[in-house]
UniProtKB/TrEMBL annotation:
Positions of the Rad60/SUMO-like domain: 15-66
Species assigned in the record: Streblomastix strix
InterPro entries: Rad60/SUMO-like_dom, Ubiquitin-like_domsf
A Pfam family annotated for this UniProt entry: Rad60-SLD
Protein name: Rad60/SUMO-like domain-containing protein
Matching SUPFAM superfamilies: Ubiquitin-like
């Protein structure tokens, strides 16, 4: 089974603001709990304390969102 989807948004964010603000806003907008998603930028898991400046992010860069899904099998 494969789950996929695309959600695109343009966000204006001060380069010195912690990613927490953006990541929490995304989860709130999508009605998700932060504990079930992982955010990555350039194959690096984002920390809530990371900033766009520290990550050398540029206009137009993308953040990937991965969902943690628990699968249980039965016979």
């Amino acid at each position: 089974m494969a789950l996929s989807g695309v959600w695109k948004a343009t966000v204006l964010l001060n380069k010195k603001v912690a990613m927490r603000k953006l990541l929490e806003a995304y989860c709130t907008n999508q009605n998700l709990q932060m504990k079930i998603v992982t955010f990555r930028y350039n194959d690096k898991v984002l920390k809530l304390t990371d900033t766009a400046e520290a990550l050398n992010m540029q206009d137009g860069d993308n953040i990937q969102v991965y969902f943690k899904v628990e699968v249980k099998f039965y016979q």
